[in-house]
Each structure stands twice: as structure tokens, then as C-alpha cells.
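Exam prep: given the inputs below (a chain plus zinc ion), describe the expected output before reading on.
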Amino acid sequence: MKCRVCRGEAFVKLPAHNAAFCPEHFDAFFLRQIARAIKKYRMLPPGGRVVVALSGGKDSLVTALVLHRLGYQVEGLFVDLGILEGDFSPASRQACEEFCAVHGVPLRVYSLTAEFGRGIPDIARRYPRICALCGVTKRHVMNEYTLAVGADALATGHTLDDMAAALFANLLRWDLHYLAKGLPVLPAEEGFAKKIKPLALQAENEIRAFAALHEIRPVEAVCPYAPEAKFKRYKSVLNELEEKSPGLKRAFYEGYTQQAHRFKEETARPPLVTCAVCGLPATNSPCTFCRIWRDAT
Ligand code: Q46
Ligand code: ZN
Ligand code: ZN
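Solution:
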């Protein structure tokens, strides 16, 4: 296989794009694809300021590197959950610290233990559905932080595989709420920072190749509370279909982004109140975050 651009030895083969590339031209191709998505979905103004939610995994690290290389003012935010089992939080934190040091990306670490004197394992003893609360916690911290620093948006590392699998699952159960919210961009609203997913059109194999090319070293430790990977079955069905029809996943998700407006009016959101403690919009006051971590009642 030869590089589509220079005819040199190919480093990666991308059946979905009917192309193969050498390292140099794959790098340029990957950046160009994301630059195009950022423009198409109006994710960021040129040179804009963006907080990237870093977990230590490859997707979030690749998101930060790409945005940094495209000239945005990137700041990484790592939420240290205080999970010591399996060295999960310390190893994740170290992966983020190393990445940020190598690439010159500023990193802010928000440690639950430092802020509130306890972490996820302490909370897990009281609450059985710990992942749901952990998700609420991370989203709250990231949103509050992005608003506080006045960045243009909060970026997460969701990939095409994540977006297509979620779309597939939510279509099967006609979850209209999600179907109105599955876009790569959620606009800012009062109390909510703009949320963007710059890798929403990049498939897993492309992201893996880009991470390898730049010697990104993601964390290997796995969270001890990790349930079966989200949407795993849907991902494998889509991958089977993709193998037979390269490009199907992307066409499926991209097609949705053109139709998503149709689901908008269908969703009635529960009315929001203002949390008396943190001042952010929530379904109840105090909000779940303040109830759990700030002991608000
Ligand atoms: S970190 Fe938190 Fe995940 Fe661990 S406790 Fe569950 S949600 S599995 S992405
Ligand atoms: Zn080439
Ligand atoms: Zn609150």
C-alpha cells in the first residue's frame, strides 16, 4: 500500500476514506479533517480558548494535542477522583501530567480529596450507582471550571465510534431527549458552558494511529468500578457493518447531524431551578453535586 499523496510507504490504511497515508501525510490529513469539523459545526472561534477534559485515556489526550496544534489556547483539566485501587487515579493523573509536560499544554488538576476531604471510594460506600454519581461529579466540575475561566468551550474526547453507537442505541429505543442532543456541539446556555466533541467524526482506528504516531502514552490502569464498556454491543454491531461497507459509521452519524434539528421541538426538558449553593441551573436545589460533596441539604 502506498501513500495517497507522495506514493511513499503507507503507515496507515483507511478503508473508510478509501486511502492510505505515510506518517507525514496521515498527520496532515487527520488535522485537516478535524479542522473541517470544527469549522462546519462552529465549535470554536479561530485561536479560541478551550478547556479539554482529560482522563488520561488516548481519546482525550489526542483531542488536546490536535486542538493545541491547530492553534487554539488549550488548557487540560483532570478531575482526580481519589481512586487508589489498581493505582487508577494516580496513574491517570501521571499520564495527563506527562502528556502536558511534553506538549507544553497547561494542566489544572481538580482533586476531590483536596477539595472535599474524600473521593469517589468514600461516596461509593453510601451510593450503589457510583458511576452515575461519578459522571454527575465530573460534568459539574468541568462545567463550573469552564464557566469560571471564561473559556469558549469545554471539549471532550468522544469519538465517531462513541457517537454512532450512542445514536444507534438511542434510535432503537427512540430516546428523543438524546436524539435532540447527540450533536458534536451543544451551545452555551445560562449556567452551561458550550460543549464540543472535536473527534466526533474520527474513527477509532484513525485516533489510534494518530496516538501511536505522536507516541502518546495513555493510562493503562482501569477503574475498579468500571462496568461493561458503554454501548459495547452496539459498537461491535456497527464495526461488523463497517467492515462490509467502509464509511458506513461516518455516513450514519453525519447523516444524523443534518437531521438532528427535527428532534428539537419534541423534547420537553424538566424545568430548571438555580442551586442555592453553587448558583448553577439544576433540576433540584441544592443540586446533586452540592448535596453529595458539599453536604448541602
Ligand atoms: S471513572 Fe467514574 Fe468511570 Fe470509574 S467510577 Fe465509573 S464513571 S468507571 S468513566
Ligand atoms: Zn505521503
Ligand atoms: Zn449546586
